[in-house]
Design a protein that fits this description.
alpha/beta; ATP binding; UDP-N-acetylmuramoyl-L-alanine:D-glutamate ligase; four-stranded mixed sheet; 316 residues
Length: 316
């Protein structure tokens, strides 16, 4: 069982539009409403693969009730933590050329009692988990070291933990030695405090995160592919994707694929790449099912192309 923890979930509305024009009325060609948040997306991808998952998340107000209904409709076992504030609602605008514009709300502020109940709920369900995936931003009220506390508690209970967050929360959690961290290129650059222009830059940054405490680093490099660095070495995985519809949740789908395949080594990286490539061909934040995957299109090599320029370098 894969337990997911989403401290700041959302109700996600995605609209497909021809293009964005400020000040104009834009007619959508398609729309979706999904339960959102990075950990929720991981749970949805795990469930789509036919694997058991339990989603721990604080829920409040009418949006929270709708998130619970949508999770149940997708066959996902939820462990909701009731909170006084309303769950946030996010909007994504997906243009026909693949460009995505997102508007993310801040979410509710969690009280001290709600924070403790969230930790207790994670603890109660972690005993049966093979992996805990802690994902996304922290809501107002939670200190940046919150994820580090969860990592320490998970290891004390003998459970492996994967982490997908950013900024100070990532840096502090890495010091608690999570088994896997999954930054994208921007988050990786922010963590080490310098630009990433080539795959080699990303490799060096991932190695630095390992030196700070991360057991393994699974780095998403956008259209260029994914990089896995652990104690056994480094691997680079890629897949050519045409007809990109939406990259919402693609990184979350990748993490799910990685954990489903065992959470370590080149085979797990290949699964991560296949899941991420399948996700971007689907509308909104739809998570891929096994029939959407194309493992034959995935290439994984230990010959990391360190000199290759990133398609979307992080220069700031």
């Amino acid at each position: 069982m894969i337990l997911t923890v989403t401290p700041n979930p959302s109700l996600d509305r995605t609209y497909e539009v021809p293009s964005l024009e400020r000040g104009e009325v834009i007619r959508a060609s398609g729309e979706r409403m999904d339960p959102g948040g990075k950990g929720v997306n991981v749970a949805r991808a795990v469930a789509a693969a036919g694997r058991r998952t339990v989603a721990v998340l604080p829920l409040g107000g009418a949006p929270g009730a709708l998130v619970a209904e949508l999770l149940a409709a997708q066959g996902i076992e939820a462990a909701p933590v009731p909170v006084a504030g309303a769950t946030r609602s996010n909007i994504a605008l997906a243009e026909s050329d693949g460009v995505l514009t997102k508007i993310n709300a801040p979410g509710p502020r969690l009280s001290a009692a709600e924070q403790e109940l969230l930790l207790d709920t994670v603890r109660a369900h972690s005993r049966a988990a093979d992996w805990i995936a802690c994902c996304g931003s922290l809501p107002r009220g939670l200190r940046p070291s919150w994820y580090a506390d969860v990592v320490a508690r998970a290891h004390a209970g003998g459970t492996r933990i994967a982490l997908d967050t950013s900024g100070r929360a990532l840096v502090e959690a890495v010091r608690a030695r999570p088994d896997v961290v999954k930054p994208n290129a921007e988050e990786l650059a922010e963590a080490v405090g310098r630009p990433l222009v080539t795959v080699g830059d990303a490799l060096q940054a991932a190695e630095e995160l390992r030196g700070m405490g991360a057991g393994a680093v699974l780095a998403s490099l956008g259209a260029d592919g994914q990089l896995l660095v652990d104690a056994a070495g480094a691997w680079f995985g890629s897949a050519h994707v045409r007809d990109v519809r939406s990259n919402v949740g693609a990184g979350d789908s990748s993490l799910a694929g990685f954990l489903i395949a065992g959470g370590g080594g080149p085979e797990a990286l290949a699964s991560a790449v296949a899941h991420g490539a399948a996700a971007v061909r689907l509308p909104g934040s739809v998570m891929p099912a096994p029939g959407d995957l194309d493992p034959a299109a995935v290439t994984v090599t230990s010959d990391v192309p360190v000199g290759r320029a990133l398609t979307e370098p992080v220069t700031a």
